[in-house]
Each structure stands twice: as structure tokens, then as C-alpha cells.
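Key result, reporting period 2: structure in, sequence out.
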């Protein structure tokens, strides 16, 4: 009987050790904070109340207003080109009733983006052209619209070539998509979206080695209990909030949040003054 138990106990021990190291061992090296831990504001799809979202014009306006960071939405066309495009369907922005994943880039690259029901002077941007323009001097938050293995592999190639890991954040709510990126390249910075109040358990689900580097949610999904959890686990500077505008900016500031994706409009104080408020409150 004892001889039979020995192999079983050995296998059980190996299993326990494997589980331990998968979830708790080989801790990853902690990546640096966004903007060296200083407050930062992202322009949500650029500054889009003056022009069409996710366009060269909206990003140029954000640049002129001294935004240090940009949030953009990325999708992939049928032929594998990564484009800056929010909607699953092309109807609202290109007046084509087809999903973006079902069209080839060549068929849409010269079409004008729609703004307030009219054609603008802006065309759809590729991620490659966008990064060539902004990646060196901006922090970029890439909001993944449809997480696929093909898109993940394409992003791995882009970032593998550019090496701009510290200024590029890849954000999605799909934990398997984020883990796939981390497994393939541990230098990539990931953001778990949908990290809401009452969902803090998600933090413990990831193995240490593959945990997201940052956590994001709508500001409306933050409460005092969530803030307490973030502070307890030293995550307050790794939290990013979106859904922030003039009506609730003060709420974000008074929570002590410092990484904010903002829907900026001309009635607000300028980006520099918003940053000043954030820095004063977080001293």
C-alpha cells in the first residue's frame, strides 16, 4: 500500500508546487508607473468636440492643447491592417453599412470620415502612421475593440520593432488576450479594462508574472471602497479612469485619481491647469 501511495503523493506534490509557482512564484519585475508616477490626462479619441474623433485633426488639437497622452481605439480590417476606428460597424463614421473587420483597407483608405452627418477632411488613420507621428512624444492608450489572436500578433510585431514599451499601453477587458501578450513579450504594458467596484477579485485571478500593469474603469464604477482597495494594494497610481468630463472631473480629482482619460471640451479649463489641480491634490 505504501509503495502505491508514493507515486500518488509525488504527483500531488508536483501539482501543488506547479500551482504555487504559476500563481505566486517567479514574480515579474514591477514596471514603472505612467509618467514616472506623476498625474497625467489622456485626450479621449483626441479632442473630438471640434472635429471627428480618432482623426489626425483631433490629435493635432490635443497636441496644441498640451495633452501629454492620447487614448485611441483600434480595430483590424479584413486584410489585417490595424486602423484607428471605434465602431464595430462603419455606418456612423464612413456611411458604409459593413463591419470594419469585413472590409479591406484599400476600399476605405480614401473615404472621408463623417462628422455631425457630413464628410470631414479627415481620412481613417492606420496605427502605423499614427505611431510614426505621436509615439515618441506622447503616452498612448490603445483601446482594443475586438481582441483576436491576429490582432495580438500584429501588435507584438509593431512593438517589437519600435521598442516603445514605456509609452504604449494596450487595454482590454479580455484577460486571456492580455495574458497572451504578456506571455509572448513581458515588456508589453497591459491595462485591464472593466476593473470596477465590486470586481476587485479579478486582481487575484491573474498569476503574478502575468498581472496587468494597470487597471481601468469608468469613473462611475469607482467608489470609496474601491479606492480603499487600490490604496491597500498600492494600485492607486496604476488606476486609470475614463468617462470623465466637465461634470465629474472634480470627483475624479477628489478621489485622488491621477491617470484620467478625459472628454475635453472648450468650456473646461485648459489641460495644463487640469494637470496642476491633479498635482496639487496628490501632493
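The corresponding designed sequence is given below.
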Amino acid at each position: 500500500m505504501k509503495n502505491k501511495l508514493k507515486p500518488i503523493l509525488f504527483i500531488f506534490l508536483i501539482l501543488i508546487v506547479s500551482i504555487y509557482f504559476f500563481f505566486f512564484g517567479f514574480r515579474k519585475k514591477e514596471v514603472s508607473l505612467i509618467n514616472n508616477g506623476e498625474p497625467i490626462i489622456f485626450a479621449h479619441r483626441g479632442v473630438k468636440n471640434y472635429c471627428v474623433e480618432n482623426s489626425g485633426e483631433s490629435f493635432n488639437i490635443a497636441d496644441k492643447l498640451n495633452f501629454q497622452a492620447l487614448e485611441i481605439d483600434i480595430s483590424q480590417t479584413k486584410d489585417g491592417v490595424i486602423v484607428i476606428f471605434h465602431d464595430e460597424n462603419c455606418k456612423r463614421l464612413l456611411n458604409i453599412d459593413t463591419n470594419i473587420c469585413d472590409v479591406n483597407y484599400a476600399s476605405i483608405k480614401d473615404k472621408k470620415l463623417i462628422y455631425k452627418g457630413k464628410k470631414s477632411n479627415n481620412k481613417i488613420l492606420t496605427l502605423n502612421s499614427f505611431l510614426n507621428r505621436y509615439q515618441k512624444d506622447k503616452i498612448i492608450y490603445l483601446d482594443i475593440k475586438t481582441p483576436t489572436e491576429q490582432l495580438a500578433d500584429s501588435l507584438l510585431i509593431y512593438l517589437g520593432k519600435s521598442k516603445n514599451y514605456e509609452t504604449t499601453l494596450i487595454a482590454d477587458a479580455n484577460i486571456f488576450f492580455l495574458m497572451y501578450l504578456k506571455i509572448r513579450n513581458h515588456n508589453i504594458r497591459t491595462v485591464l479594462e472593466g476593473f470596477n467596484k465590486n470586481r476587485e477579485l479579478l486582481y487575484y485571478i491573474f498569476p503574478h508574472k502575468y498581472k496587468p500593469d494597470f487597471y481601468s474603469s469608468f469613473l462611475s464604477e469607482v467608489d470609496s471602497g474601491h479606492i480603499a482597495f487600490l490604496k491597500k494594494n498600492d494600485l492607486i497610481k496604476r488606476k486609470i479612469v475614463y468617462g470623465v468630463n466637465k461634470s465629474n472631473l472634480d470627483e475624479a480629482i477628489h478621489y485622488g485619481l491621477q491617470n484620467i482619460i478625459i472628454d475635453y471640451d472648450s468650456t473646461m479649463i485648459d489641460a495644463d491647469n487640469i494637470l496642476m489641480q491633479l498635482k496639487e491634490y496628490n501632493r
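The chain has a mean pLDDT of 90. Residues 61 and 206 are 38 Å apart (CA to CA). This case is discussed further under Risks and Mitigation.
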